[in-house]
Every structure is written in structure tokens, then in C-alpha cells.
Amino acid sequence: MPVTWFNKILAYMRKTLDANKTAKTAAPDNMSIEKRAAEVVSIGATASLSGDAAAATPLQEDTGEPTLQELHQQGQMLVWEGRLAEGLKSLSDAALANPDDEAIRNSLSQTLQATGLALSDDDLIANLSTIFRDDADVLALVDRVAKPLFNTLSSVGVEQTSDQLLTAASLANASGDIVTDQINELVKRDADGLSHRQVPATRRTVLAAARLLKTLQRDEELAADFAEVVASDQSLSVLEALASPTLRKMDQGSKTEMRYLFARAVTNYGSRSNALAPRVAIAGDVLKDRKQSDPSDTAAQLDFGIAGTQGTLAVKNASTLRSGFVTWQNDPAEAVQAFEAVKANSAPDPVIDFYTRQARQQAIPELPFVGFPRSGSVFVFSSLVSGLGKPSFGGMMGGAFPDFVFAQEGFNVVRAGRGSSHTHIRASRMNLLEMGPRYGIKKLLVMVRDPRQALMSWHDFMPKIASDMDPVQAQHYNLPDSFLDFSDEEQMDWLIENWLPVLVTWLDEWKEASRTDWFETKIHYARFEDLRKDQEKFFLDILDFFEIDHDLFEMPTKPTKEGDRNFRQGHVDSWRTETSPGQRSRIERIVPHDLLTFYGWDQT
Q1: What is the pLDDT of residues 291-317, one digit of tens each?
Q2: Alpha-carbon gap, residue 498 to 235, rounded angstroms
Q3: Dihedral, CA atoms, 224, 229, 230, 235, nearest 10 degrees?
Q4: Kind of pairing between the strands at 302-307 and 311-316
Q5: Which residue segments constitute the domains of the chain, with CATH numbers given?
Q6: What is the spatial distance between Cα 80 and Cα 74, in angstroms, rounded to a whole number?
Q7: What is the edge-to-edge ordering of all strands in the sheet holding 420-423?
Q8: Environment class of residue 518 by beta-carbon count within 10 Å: exposed (0-12), middle (13-18) or buried (19+)?
């Protein structure tokens, strides 16, 4: 597109803007320009979205005023090049100067709806909120561009900023008093002469709170949970992240975890929060950049990651802690070092303080959780976290099954927030020493399952993960390269001889933990078989063990299907009918009778 045409269109729009700034009403000639500009942007936006690119015919270079048809065609190019901000700004000023002109208003409204309003002009936002104060659809679009205000508030005066805050709160349509109270507090601080350096952070926080309440207006509990966090100058990115569409699609248990993870990451990095770019990955996703072919390359882009049952938070910043996430996944020997590095770069965490106070008020202790893989532990953990409204934390273990190790600093986070963490750590001497004598964990929930039946679940599960398993995890599992080429029976044979002993060792270590004199932690063994038999009693027994009031827990609905890789629907003794006589004989030889007796599986 010739530059002269592009500049010519913008010149007409700027001319309109300048005219409106020097006169209360526009002259007829100026109105003609305004209407043409309106049609340029509106028709261009509509045509570009409908794919009507062929509608524009080649234009001849001209030194005179372009015709209306030519402006329409060039408007398409204007839209395609993403240069809408200046055009819409001119139209919004024209609409304010001529409030009775329906043509301008309609063109502006159509353009907003067609483009989604991906703009960054503060004055434009204020104009649109005035022009369309009774148009809910347009106001919803206007609300989407509240975020750019955050980046410019530091250079705006107190009085003007307060007005913009009120506008943002109005656009957010907040039903409660949280935002109003925060705005009043801000104005009071302004009046008291709060330093210029501190005020902008508070303003940004209030704007973020308004946007949060708009996005999560149906989730009053979530908004209330962060009422206190709003007062923290470091919570801006937390609130922005919480307003993301990803969070709205999550269940309550996942929200509880993700809102903590975002808050934890931002507060850890304090004043550097603006440099972070958080994103959410649902359980099962490969944490890697879209352009990466090797997930291990993620190490070069991450400085902080928390792996949790419900999801993963990755904060991208190549300047610090470059190997944090991959270290936790692949090298248990360095897990503690990664946590120490995070701690060294941490600031006080208001979210942990908030959850600690809430947990103490409700007399809810921390709830450390160890789950035998393929025992339904993901469902149980998610149900406990969601049902008690507790924060859940990743990072309490490092490595990969069966070699997970207890991560000290990760547990410090769990204890500080009185939360929970889902782990698969083994009861090795080192892990027991850390959990017991060193950290003094009083009570521990350990979820178990008959290894003979768990083997059937692994038989279904292992082929699903073998195809996308990273090389280091494959070494932990000791899978042969040809495993996926095995027949179904050969895969079962391999699992019996190579994997069943691993499962037996894991269970046997936790059996012996209860008999170890120096390990004084009380263990509640929660059995998968009891969960299937009587789910309500299963959870009530856990609450009684931790001395938690039953009224504080919301009982989960009974799962109707497995879920992604987490819970196989099978009988508690189908291993007897789904294996050959020879396989059953080898299974019975590998699983010791005293293990079955200890856990109460000797009758199955």
C-alpha cells in the first residue's frame, strides 16, 4: 500500500481531531470528514473480518482528496495493518462533539464490535465509556482495554487518575463494596500526600481489582478471598492473571490452586512483577514454548515454576533462575537448591499470610499428602483441597517416580499457608528424616492401593505416557525403547517383572515407616478400596484424623469416569480375571503376604 494513501487517511482523521479541540461544534466541512473517517474504519473493519479483501479494487495514485469509495478501500488496508487506534480516537472525539449524530455513533459501535477493541489509548477509553454508558455490549469491550491504563498511570495526576479509577470501577460493574472502598482509600492516601512513587502501584491495584470483579462477578467467594490482597502493591499481576479466561473455565479446586500460584510467583519477584509473563498449563500439557521441539529447552526460558496436581505455572524471564522448572523435573539432587534460589529472590508473601490467618480461624492444619500412583490420589487430593477451600502447592517433591525426594523449602510453603501438596515421595530414610525429626510433621495422609490391582491400571496407563515421556523420566521408569512395540501380553509381562517390584517396594517402605521408632509422625493409610466402598465414610475418616470439623468440608460428588490419566474405573480384584494363570502366579510370588495383611488386602 503506498505510504501517501496511508498518510492521507490519517491526515483527515487528525484534522478532525484538531478541529474538535478548537471548536465546540464542528463545521459542516469537518463533519463530512468525520463521516468519511467513520465509514473508512467501520466498513474496513467489517470487510476485513468477513474476508472481503477482494472487494477492494486497485487504486490509482492521486494528489487530490480521495473519493468515499477509495477511503473505504483504504480503510480495509488500515484495519489489516492494525492501525485502528488513531482512527477510533478521532471518531470518538467526533461523537462527543456531535452527540446527536447517529451515523457516527453507529459506525463507531459497529467498528468496536467488529474489532474487539484491541486498543491502548486512555482518552479513547474514557470517551467510549461516556458515549456508550447504556450499551452493555460495548462497555464489555471497553473493559477489555482497562489493562493498558496500568502502564501509563504513573505519569497521570492524582485528580485525573481518581476519575479514571471511578470510570474503571463503573465499567467493571462491581456489585460489592470492595472496589469502592479501595478507591476511597486511594483518594484518602492521595489527600494525605502519599509519595508519588507509591501512589501509582495502589492505583494499578485498584484498577486490577475492578477488572477482576468484572471478570469473576459470579464468583463472589474468589473476589472476597483477594479483598485483602488487593491492598498489596505487589498484587497487580496476580489480579490481572486471575481475570484471565483460563481461570473462569476451571473448577473451584483448580481456581484455589491457580490463584495461589499466580500470587506466589508475583510476590516472590516483588517489584519485578511487571517483567513476568505468567501462563497456565492444564495437567497433562507439555510445558514448552510453541516454537520448541524439545521440552527440555524450556530450561532456558524459565526462572520459576510450580508443578501442581491441577496445573503448572510458568513465569518466563530469562534473566534469573533459568533452570528452575526442569531441575525439579529431572534432577532430584538439585531440587533443594532450586527452592533455595527461589527463596533468595523472594519478597514477603501476603497471600500466604492471608491463607494462614484464614486457616487458623477455621482450625484447619496443613495437610501433607502422599499418594501411591494409580490409587485415585488425584481425585482425593482435589476433593480435599476444593472441599476445604485450602490452597494447594506444588514443589514439595523433586525428581520423578519412583525416586521422588522431599523438598524442604516446598514444605515450608505448605506449612506457612496451611495448605496441601500432592506428592508421590517414597518412605526412604532421607525422606523420613526430613519429614519427621527435622520438620516435625505431626500427621501425614498416605493413599494406597492393592499393588496387584494397581498393576492393571499401570497396564492401561504406561503406553499412554510412554509415547510423550521425556528421556530422563523414561530412565526413572527404566522403560525399554521397544516397549510400545510389545504386544499387550508382553507389556503385562514386562510390568510384572520390572514394575510390580517397584510398587511393592514403595508400599513396603511406607509400611515400615509406621514401625520406625524415630519417625513419630502419625500416618493415616487411606485405601482406594475403601474409597470405592463408601466414599462419604472415606473422607470423614480423613477429617477425623486431622481433627477437622465436618461442617467445613463440602463432600465431593462420586466420580463417574476416570478423568485424564488419573483414575481407572476397575474392580478391586479384576487382576484375577484379566491376567493369565502364569502371570497370576508370578504376581503372587512377587507380592509378599505380610504386605497384603498389613494393608488388609489379604482377603481379596
Answers
A1: 333 333 333 333 233 332 222 233 333
A2: 49
A3: -130
A4: antiparallel
A5: 344-599 (3.40.50.300)
A6: 10
A7: 420-423, 367-371, 443-448, 522-527
A8: exposed
